[in-house]
Design brief:
- The protein has two domains: about 40 residues, no CATH class; about 35 residues, no CATH class.
- The protein starts with a helix and ends in a 30-residue tail after the last helix.
- It is mainly α.
- The protein is built from four helices and two strands, in the order αβαβαα.
Length: about 80
C-alpha cells in the first residue's frame, strides 16, 4: 500500500495498485496518499467492478491466473456480472 511518504518527494499524481479493496482505496485517496487506485486483478473476475463498488455488492471470487489469457471463450471473457436473487 502506498504511504504518505511519497508526497514528501513527489508532487505529481500518484497512482497506486495491487491488493486494494474498495475501503482501503477510498481511505488512501481521502488521506491524500494517492490520487487514483488501479484495480487489475479484481476487474478480471468482476467485469462490472464499478457497479459493484457503487452499490456495495459482493465481488466474485478471485480468478485463477491460469484462465486470465485463454485461447477460447472459457476464462478471461466469461466471468459473471452481479445478479440479485
Amino acid at each position: 500500500m502506498v504511504s504518505g511518504e511519497f508526497r514528501d518527494v513527489f508532487m505529481g499524481a500518484i497512482i497506486a495498485n495491487s491488493g486494494y479493496t474498495r475501503e482501503i482505496a477510498s481511505a488512501a485517496i481521502q488521506a491524500g496518499n494517492a490520487d487514483l487506485i488501479g484495480f487489475g486483478r479484481p476487474i478480471i473476475s468482476n467485469p462490472d467492478l464499478v457497479e459493484r463498488f457503487a452499490n456495495g455488492w459482493s465481488l466474485n471470487p478471485a480468478a485463477d491466473p491460469g484462465v486470465w489469457f485463454s485461447f477460447d471463450k472459457k476464462g478471461y471473457t466469461d466471468f459473471p456480472t452481479y445478479r440479485k436473487f
